[in-house]
């Protein structure tokens, strides 16, 4: 490893130790840093996919909320943005999504996928 990679790894491990709620050894801190990077990458990918889906038929805003939910464990701005997205989603008095809303979004997404497959392969 180069000197810069070593400094980056040391900084990531020190940041993991500073969180103070998961790791007790350097190996646990290293695994925690890798897990955190994986969650950030996965959450970013899901969020970008949701943003792409927003203007299309289907559950775009719901996918954005799921991506931000994954990101919010590690990134403060994602948690703040998730609160804004949650206010825009239809919900009941408990703040949960209504089953009818989830069913509608799922049906619309499946219809959009079916239509796309039909146009792509059968036309």
Q: Your description of this structure?
A:
There is one protein chain. The chain has 123 residues and is mainly alpha-helical. It has one domain (3-122). Helix content is 76%, strand content 0%. It is built from 5 helices and no strands. The termini are far apart.
Provide key terms for this protein:
mainly alpha, 123 residues, 5 helices
Short description:
The protein has 123 residues and is mostly helical. The protein has helices spanning 3-19, 26-53, 60-71, 76-88, 99-122.
Q: What is the share of helical residues?
A: over 70%
Number of domains: 1
Number of helices: 5
Question: How many individual β-strands?
Answer: 0
N- to C-terminal separation?
A: 54 Å
Query: How much is the radius of gyration in Å?
Result: 19 Å
Mean of all residue-level pLDDT scores? 76
What is the 3D shape? elongated
Strand content: under 5%
Could you describe the largest sheet, including whether it forms a barrel? none
Q: Any low-confidence stretches, pLDDT <50, length ≥5?
A: none
